Each structure stands twice: as C-alpha cells, then as structure tokens.
Amino acid sequence: MSLAFPPRLIVFDLDGTLIDSRVDLCNSVNATLAHLGKPTLPEAVISGYIGDGASMLVRRAIGDPEGDSTDEQYVTEALTFFLDYYRIHKLDYTYVYPGVLEALENIRADHPQILMAVLTNKPVHPSRDICAHFGLSRFFFQNYGGNSFHAKKPDPHGLEALIKEASTLADRTITPAETIMVGDTDIDVLTARNCGARSIGCAFGLKPHSLADAPPDHLAHSPTDWPSLIAADPPQIF
C-alpha cells in the first residue's frame, strides 16, 4: 500500500519523538521505589520500561510486569506516588529534541492543509502541560493521552478518533491512507498498522531499537527529516 501524498493528518507520539523525558521519568520511578523501600534501578533499565503508559511503567519497576499482582492496593499506592511526583518534576530535565520546532514550523508553512495532533500513552494532563510549556500546543488540534480512551496504543481507537475529528475539521473524509503516525517505538508503528495508516519511525528516540520488531514505512534520523519524508513522492522506503 503506498501512501497518499501529501498526507492530510500527522499524529505524533510525545516521549522519544517530540521530547526527551527520559531523566524525569527515571527520576520519578526511582523516587517511587525509594518511597516504597525498594532499591532504585539504573536509568538504562527504566528506559526500557517506557512506552506503555504510567501504570505499566510503575508495574514493571516494582516487579509486576504482567500486571498480575494480587496486592492492587500496593500497586495503586506506587502509581499514585509516581504520578504526584512526576506532576511536580516533569519539567526538571525534559527538553524538546533539537529540530522539532523547526520541522513543525516547516510542515505548517509548506502544507497548511495538513492537520497535526498528539497521541501518547503518557497520561493526558502532563502531556498537555508539557506541550503547552514548550510552545508545541499551537501546532496540534488535539492531544490525547493514555487515559483518554478505554485502551492505549497499539490499540487503534485513539488514532481512529483523531482521524474522525480531523475529518470534521477539514470538512472532508480523511482516510487512514492519508494519515501518518510518527513515533520512536514499535508501539507507534503497530498503532498505525492496526488502523491502516502509515508510519515514520524515529531513530533518535527513547526506544528506537524496538523498531526492528516492527519496521516503519519511513525512518527519520532527526526531526529535521520529517518534512522531506512527508513531502516525498514517491515514498522513501527504508
């Protein structure tokens, strides 16, 4: 299936795609572990747990990766502490990847008809707060998080909802073939596939190694690659 050019909707992941939030997420996890009286973990280990939402991040860190703990009160305590801590410290070290703002500006200038949005597994409120803080919100008509729907990525529901909303805004039907999902993990690629959309993988993100398990249609080595990949005709398949 070839991509319709130019696309009508581009949906971005947040962590590892637009922002590098690794240190703040890892610090929040280790603060949670210390609060629970458990040993802290190396940043490299915690980084491997990122991508499936806050609940799974915390479960993996406390040793409940399959979510089969019988002590849900303990898990809830851990998750609550993590969210409260991260809410305060989410901007301590987080930064926008170099080239992101310029790439979004270029896409907006060269393709004003393209709508853009955020779909992340991070809880929606910190996602929106972070985008607002860094001046990213102005590019996106919507920002949905992992708790915005009944299921997280790679379930396609969130992406399908954004396609529907974009169609209403554009006053025309936007199809999955006219949609690109941009992200740094196999979760983002699978979300696109499950919806019938195309994907751009980000080799500079938090978990780019996971793209080997689900190769994207295009590969961006830097955010500055996004405009050319989006405008490419025929598609540049890697």
From TrEMBL:
Its EC number is 3.1.3.18. GO terms for molecular function: phosphoglycolate phosphatase activity. It comes from Tunturiibacter psychrotolerans. Keywords: Hydrolase. Pathway: Organic acid metabolism; glycolate biosynthesis; glycolate from 2-phosphoglycolate: step 1/1. PANTHER family: PHOSPHOGLYCOLATE PHOSPHATASE. Belongs to the HAD-like hydrolase superfamily. CbbY/CbbZ/Gph/YieH family. This is phosphoglycolate phosphatase. It comes from the Bacteria. GO terms for cellular component: cytosol. GO terms for biological process: DNA repair. Coiled coil: none annotated. It catalyses: 2-phosphoglycolate + H2O = glycolate + phosphate.
